[in-house]
Amino acid sequence: MKTKHPNLHQFLVRANEGGDLSRQELVSMIPVKLLDVKPSHLVLDSCASPGSKTSQILEVMLSKNASGAVVANDASLQRANLLTHRCYRLEAAAKNLVVVNHDAQTLPLELENTFDRILCDVPCSGDGTLRKSTDLWKKWSNSSGVELHSIQVNVATRALRLLKYNDGGGRLVYSTCSLNPLENEAVVVELLQRSRGAIKLVDCSKMLPDLKRLPGLTKWSVQDLKNGRWYDTYDSYVKDNNNRAGQKSKIRKSMFANTNNHKHNLDRCFRIHPDLNDTGGFFVAVFEKMKPLPTEMIDIDAKEEQKLSRTTNANTKKWASAKIAPVFCVKTDTEFKAVIKRIKAKYGFDARKKEENGGVEIITRNNTDVVPKRLYCLSKGAKLILDKCSRNQEEQQKLRILACGLCCFERQAVNKGLKSQSDDTDCEFRFTQTGCELFQDSISKQVVRVSPKELESMLARQQQKLFTTSKNAPLCIDDKTKKKVLSECQRGCVILAVRAKSSGSGNKRKLVEEEVAAVSPVTIACWFPPSKKSRSDGTNDIDDDVTLTLMCSKSEGEVRLERLRELGKLKLVN
Ligand SMILES: C[S@@+](CC[C@H](N)C(=O)[O-])C[C@H]1O[C@@H](n2cnc3c(N)ncnc32)[C@H](O)[C@@H]1O
Question: Where is 173: in which H helix or E strand?
Fold first, then answer.
């Protein structure tokens, strides 16, 4: 492979860093496939780190009109940070993302009956990965399944409470990379029994028809680790332990197969053994919620939450010492309205277009008494999640939010001292690189179309000063573009964009457009600083000394360069 495709490795690394490509084991992709996420859905990934499946879900949110949200949670703060880093590679979908740090057994009940889709890829013994994780052979013990069973039931129970039941029902996918029935079928049966008909297993037999799988088990035994004996029923286990079971023992009644198992449609579960498809081992079950959970199930959940309060407190302390900036929803006071008005005026926003594409909301991460330094964009769905969990606009969220939304604007004043701040066109905010990509289809000012070649040479040279009219300096931008910048743009943020080629007709044209949408459009934010000769009315002198600076970082530039070259090869830009 190395000789045939010498640049393949480099390409894979770059595409992975830029979020254009993410790799995952085949079986690990099944849960999200069965989740059937739509761009308008509110989705919870309850145990999400390192984020392979969250990234797979987020790909759906890359669609132009995605108004939905993905709440990605992990109990470990360190792993939630890893998750954030990984998910933010899919830059455009970050507007739909909220990363939180909670024990999934106690996720806030403000979100009860909220999510259309929930993934519970629960912590498990991981025995399905023994082929690739050779170190697990030394660590694995039969106790893992026993220890994890209750957590797995609790995580799924809380998730079921947060799942919607109206509008055709919410869907929850439960998965593990374990083949131990205590972590799989026993959990599924416990949930079905507790729910008293509020949930059912979905028949997925027609989905992924080429994937070889086995039905869920209906019979299994449980080992008492103290004496090594195996038991088929809880009663026989209790009898052998002189009726003292349940006091100190970790073995629970719910771990045993029961005689009613054949009634639960366990054949609807996917059991994927490594030898079937030459993959890792995996277990998946898909639930649908048809009505609210019964009081009894909610009571059990509340009791478990009480028991867990000690761990939750420990997490809260860790969170407090991590000093993570809180999220504030932007106040709609007149001062801030004026800021938005200036942004709209400077960049010629067509709010209708953005609305047609799902719309966005704006938040900041500092108190908005002063004009904030950064503005973040959120999808409508993500804002809805935030609103549900905040008691009022000023107070911190009930959700422990680590990251949310896409930073689209940063404060950088252009004409300090030259013009008054109250002037509608004197906007103190510039686009970030990702911000201009998100809004590029709804702005009409400060945008200059350039040829792919021109942009390619700029990105390739990625250096501080890109072009200047002073005689000895190297030029890497056409005269035509230079004139356009001078005549059409105000000082400050200027966006250079290549035009997507729409050739062909009918289906062929549609395909081309879809391909263009799949590879992010190449749009680059630049800084056009005020000239010493600039007129006080903000217009430019045609003989100005012009300097443009790329605002994307070197790595952001590298990713865009790669995209541009790919688009060029596909003849999708002109
Ligand atoms: C099987 S991994 C998830 C893998 C992930 N879905 C992916 O595809 O990249 C389980 C994750 O659950 C987290 N975890 C363990 N206990 C948890 C709990 N009680 N609540 C939430 N997350 C938990 C672990 O930190 C771990 O990151």
Answer: strand 170-176
Ligand 1, atom 11: closest residue by C-alpha: 47
| Three-state SS letters, 396-411 | CCCCCEEEECEEEEEE
Q: How far is the CA of 369 from the centre of ligand 1 (A)?
A: 38
The separation between CA 154 and the C-alpha centre of its own chain, rounded to angstroms, equals 24
Phi and psi, residue 565, nearest 5°: -65, -40
Q: What is the DSSP code string of 223-265?
A: E-TTT--EESSHHHHHHHTTT-TTSS----GGGS--TTGGGGT
Query: Residue 45: which of 420, 275, 385 has the closest Cα?
Result: 385
What distance in angstroms lies between residue 190's CA and the mean position of ligand 1's atoms? 21
Residue whose entry in the numeric block shows the structure tokens 């801030």:
336
- Count of CB atoms within 10 A of residue 354's CB? 17
pLDDT at 321 over 70: yes
SS3 481: helix
Q: Which residues pair with 527 in a beta bridge?
A: 493, 549
Q: What is the pLDDT of residues 392-410, one digit of tens each?
A: 555 556 888 999 999 999 9
Give the pocket of ligand 1 (CB within 6 Å): 28, 47-53, 73-76, 79, 103-105, 121, 123, 151, 155
Rounded to whole angstroms, the Cα distance separating 229 from 223 reads: 6
Least confident of 122-131, 504-513, 549-558: 504-513
> Tokens 């439960």 — which residue?
174
Angle between helix 77-87 and helix 52-60 axes, rounded to 10 deg: 40
Residues 6 or more apart from 152 whose CB is under 8 A from it? Answer: 122, 123, 124, 176, 183, 187
Q: What does the alpha-carbon distance between residue 373 and residue 376 come to, in Å, rounded to a whole number?
A: 10
Q: Whose CA is nearest to atom 10 of ligand 1?
A: 123
Q: Which residue has the tokens 């911190």?
A: 396
**Is pLDDT above 80 for 270?**
yes
Q: How confident is the model at residue 119 (pLDDT cuts 50, 70, 90)?
A: very high
Kindly report the number of other CB atoms within 10 A of residue 190's CB atom.
20
